[in-house]
Amino acid sequence: KTEEEISEALGNPVQIANAYKADNFIKKAEISPRPYNMFKAILAGIGLGLFNLAFVVGLYAGIIGIVIGLGGMSLGISFAGIALIIATFFVAPYLSTPFNLSIGLGKLACFISGIGLLSLGLLLLILTVFISKLILQVTISYIKANVELVKKAGN
After folding, report:
1. Residues 127/66, Cβ–Cβ less than 8 Å
2. Does the structure show a pLDDT above 90 at 42?
3. CA-closest candidate to residue 80, choices 129, 116, 107
4. Which DSSP symbol is given to 53?
5. Which of 88, 112, 124, 141 is the most exposed place for a label (fewest CB within 10 A)?
């Protein structure tokens, strides 16, 4: 075989190097799933092909936006619950509140509603963390599949 045939059989060296760099970043992200490592792995995965840049980045940004919004919503609901619980004990009876606090039943309803909002917010926060971990696993699996595809295409 000639030298040109051997180099053609090996594939594009830039693509192969990118695949190995992405593989290295993926291993780092699996060992230490910090945001910085995940960001580097995602960027390395994007560098593997034009398809990733055209379609996957927009979809991934939308999913991350939804998760951030869900986290913010859960924190807001939790803080509203805390505020409602505090308002039960420390708001003067002549101020306007969602429930009429000037009677005993209003204070009880306000307190129970605050506990309910706080519980709902904390449950949504737990759900957000679970969804984030799931997205992390799916992202690593997708980038691994991409790396394998590029490696096979090089051979």
Report:
1. no
2. no
3. 116
4. I
5. 141
Q: What is the pLDDT of residue 59?
A: 83
In one letter, which amino acid is 38? Answer: M
**Residues present in the chain in total:** 155
The rounded distance, in Å, linking the Cα atoms of 23 and 42 is 11
pLDDT band at 56 (very low <50, low <70, confident <90, very high): confident
From residue 10, alpha-carbon distances to 7, 26, 111 in Å are: 5, 23, 70
Is residue 103 classed as helix, strand or coil in its secondary structure? coil
Joined together, the tokens standing for residue 104 give 């005993």
Is-contact 44 146, C-beta < 8 A?
no
Q: Pick 51 or 82 by higher pLDDT.
A: 82
pTM (2 d.p.): 0.63
Which of 72-76, 97-101, 138-142 has the lowest average pLDDT? 97-101
Give the burial class of 131: count Cβ atoms within 10 A of its Cβ; 0-12 exposed, 13-18 middle, 19 or more buried. middle
Look up residue 62 and give its two tokens: 């939308």
